[in-house]
Amino acid sequence: EAGVAQSPRYKIIEKRQSVAFWCNPISGHATLYWYQQILGQGPKLLIQFQNNGVVDDSQLPKDRFSAERLKGVDSTLKIQPAKLEDSAVYLCASSLGAGNTIYFGEGSWLTVV
Amino acid sequence: SQQGEEDPQALSIQEGENATMNCSYKTSINNLQWYRQNSGRGLVHLILIRSNEREKHSGRLRVTLDTSKKSSSLLITASRAADTASYFCATDGGGAQKLVFGQGTRLTINP
What we know:
Chain A has about 110 residues and is mainly β. Chain A has strands at about 5, 10-15, 20-25, 30-35, 45-50, 55, 65-70, 75-80, 90-95, 105, 110.
C-alpha cells in the first residue's frame, strides 16, 4: 500500500517569496492533516480536512498560509509571503477517520533565508 | 498548545539495554499514539492504545496507559543502534480526531 506522498522534499526560498507544498494521502483516507514541525519541537497542527471540508484551522496563520483540498483527495498548502520563522518541516498526514491510526508523509523541508 | 509532555527530553543508553520513555497529558483522551522520527525523516507510527486499554505490545515495544494518572510509557527492550531516533506521544481527544503532540524524547543508543 502506498503511503502519504509529499512534494517537494526540500525548498529554499527568500523571505517574502511564496511556496506551495503538495500532498497525496493514502487512498481512501477521508481525513487529511497539515502539521508544522520546527526543529527540536513536536509537530503542531495547522489544518485538518474531512473530505474537502475544513474541520480545524484554528492554528493556521491565515494572513499568510492557505490550504485547499478541492476534490477531497490531494491537498496543497501555500505560504505567501514567507517569513524567516516559517522555516520548518511541513508534514502531511491522513487517516480513515476518528479513532484510526494517522499516517505521515516524509515531510517537505522549508528553509526561508 | 502541546498536550503531551515526554520525559526525559533526552536519553542515552548502551545497546542491549532497555529504554523507557514517559508521556503525560492533561485532558481526557480517546486514544494515545506513539511515533518514531529518524533524523531528517517523517513520523513512523509505532502503536495506538485506546483509552480502555492498559497495555499493548508490538515486537520489542511495550506501551502502557494509565488514564487515572493521565500518563503513558513506551518501553523498548533489547535496544539496537537502529532505535536511535526521537519518539513522540500524541493524544487524540476524540471528536474530529486531532492529534496533539508532545516535544518528544531524543533516544541515542550507543554501540
